[in-house]
Write a structure and sequence with these properties.
With 68 residues, this protein is mainly beta. The chain is built from one helix and four strands, in the order βββαβ. The longest helix is centred in the middle third of the chain and has 7 residues, at 40-46.
Length: 68
């Protein structure tokens, strides 16, 4: 599969918590935890499970950083 996004981080799924409509997926990428919220249907269609591998593809036009 080819995508236009250049920020693709592959890792191991360390947590998967399904809610009423949304699943929160946590991927460990070399010690960095990346969390994504996707639909439960997408999580099921992708066959996501703890211990499996996945790639977080990040496409964003803005990064906002704040300090106290």
């Amino acid at each position: 599969m080819k995508v236009s996004a250049r920020n693709a981080l592959s890792g191991k799924i360390v947590a998967l918590k399904k809610g009423a409509t949304t699943a929160h997926v946590v991927i460990d990428v070399d010690g960095l935890k990346v969390t994504a919220s996707i639909t439960n249907e997408s999580a099921e269609d992708l066959g996501l499970k703890v211990g499996g591998t996945a790639t977080a593809i990040i496409k964003s036009s803005d990064v906002i950083i704040a300090v106290a």
